[in-house]
Design a protein that fits this description.
By secondary structure, this protein is mainly alpha-helical. It has seven helices and no strands. Helix 2 (8-33) crosses helix 4 and helix 2 runs parallel beside helix 5 (74-97). The two termini are 30 Å apart.
Length: 135
């Protein structure tokens, strides 16, 4: 039975499944934190929300990429992934704090693509910094 869990296909399926579950939980947390409804805005065609959400998805996946590369156990991979997500979430709050002239959520909800693009790039950029620190 030990050989079953050591099989690369089984390990890949396990990592994939756990990361998908974590992604759903983390995106739900982002949905609670933001003042707009991500999926409703995307359904309406709001490009700024799509870019910001896409950056969050890429950022979370990238953090888990680094975590999978470095950690042997599923438990450690999830632990570092959760820690990386918390840091990404803190980055979101710092971004909001550093722009006192306007509200990030309001601008993104109003389809301000420049703000959505910067939000996406911040999420992606921070994910590389967080990922590098994990490894």
């Amino acid at each position: 039975m030990n050989h079953f869990w050591e099989n690369h296909f089984v390990q890949t399926a396990g990592y994939y499944s756990v990361v998908i579950l974590c992604m759903i939980v983390f995106l739900t947390i982002f949905e609670i934190v933001t003042k707009y409804k991500n999926w409703e805005e995307i359904k309406k065609g709001n490009i700024a929300v799509a870019m910001a959400t896409g950056g969050k998805i890429f950022g979370i996946a990238n953090i888990f990429r680094y975590s999978i590369l470095v950690h042997d156990s599923l438990f450690m991979m999830v632990g570092w992934g959760v820690y990386g997500f918390v840091l990404l979430l803190i980055g979101y709050f710092i971004y909001e704090f550093l722009t006192p002239k306007f509200k990030i959520d309001v601008e993104i909800e109003n389809d301000n693509r420049a703000v959505g693009f910067i939000s996406m790039v911040i999420s992606i950029g921070l994910s590389f910094v967080i990922g590098a620190s994990i490894s």
